[in-house]
Design goal:
The complex is a heterodimer of chains A (110) and B (116). By secondary structure, chain A is mainly β. Chain A contains no helices and 11 strands. In chain A, strands 2, 4, 5, 6, 9, 10 and 11 form a 7-stranded mixed sheet that branches. A 4-stranded antiparallel sheet of chain A has the order 1-3-8-7, with no helix packed on it. In chain A, strand 5 and strand 6 form a beta hairpin. Chain B is mainly β. Chain B is 0% helix and 52% strand. In chain B, the strands form 3 sheets. In chain B, strands 2, 5, 6, 10, 11 and 12 form a 6-stranded mixed sheet that branches. Chain B has a 4-stranded antiparallel sheet with strand order 3-9-8-7, with no helix packed on it. In chain B, strands 1-4 form a two-stranded antiparallel sheet. The chains are: A mainly beta (110), B mainly beta (116). Chains A and B meet through strand 5, strand 9 and strand 10 of A and strand 6 and strand 10 of B.
């Protein structure tokens, strides 16, 4: 089954803890992206990666980190430095003229 | 700067009414793409349409239609004979280059509620 998977669907974290969100794709796309969505707002770009072992900061990268060791995987770590991490996180792959989105992970900080 | 504005935060109509969602964009580029995505309550983004900046023809797909006007920098979306299943948040978006990792810039979304 082709597509993008994100896990877990729901994630709860205590303040001060780092947490890693998974994103895996089997679409053979070079580029992958992480977006954050807050209630009543559009998506904002956190990080993106064009190729393996390379990634670039998006508009709101502070408090987040990523890695791109494999073409299929682009995990996002929400660190304790992120002031307000409760949000809906969406991973995407694709290119300039089309992006495909995963089902998302809803992160709640308790 | 590139920007997408969806001025309608929420719209509520009765089933079978027609409804238009507005989208206005700003870009300095001559080559760009415009998109509409649907986000149902499940959260996943569903791709609806892509239009490049050189193609101003209107598009119709079943009950959905899109009106792209470069003169007014608008890309409006109309649902004809709305149905309850159309209830969702709709996002208009803009991609500003052809690069392999170009950003897609999203509007803030319009929450559409269709009442039975």
């Amino acid at each position: 089954d082709g597509g993008i998977t994100q896990s877990p669907k729901y994630l709860f974290r205590k303040e001060g803890q780092n947490v890693t969100l998974s994103c895996e794709q089997n679409l053979n796309h070079d580029a992958m992206y992480w977006y954050r969505q807050d209630p009543g707002q559009g998506l904002r770009l956190i990080y993106y990666s064009q190729i393996v072992n390379d990634f670039q900061k998006g508009d709101i990268a502070e408090g987040y980190s990523v890695s791109r060791e494999k073409k299929e995987s682009f995990p996002l770590t929400v660190t304790s430095a992120q002031k307000n991490p409760t949000a809906f996180y969406l991973c995407a792959t694709g290119w300039a003229n089309e992006q495909f989105f995963g089902p998302g992970t809803r992160l709640t900080v308790l | 700067a590139q920007k997408v504005t969806q001025a309608q935060t929420e719209i509520s109509v009765v089933e079978k009414e027609d409804v238009t969602l507005d989208c206005v964009y700003e870009t300095r580029d001559t080559t760009y793409y415009l998109f509409w995505y649907k986000q149902p309550p499940s959260g996943e983004l569903v791709f609806l349409i892509r239009r490049n900046s050189f193609d101003e023809q209107n598009e119709i797909s079943g009950r959905y239609s899109w009106n792209f006007q470069k003169s007014t920098s608008s890309f409006n979306f109309t649902i004809t004979a709305s149905q309850v299943v159309d209830s969702a948040v709709y996002f208009c978006a803009l991609s500003d280059t052809y690069s392999s990792a170009s950003k897609i810039i999203f509007g803030s979304g319009t929450r559409l509620s269709i009442r039975p």
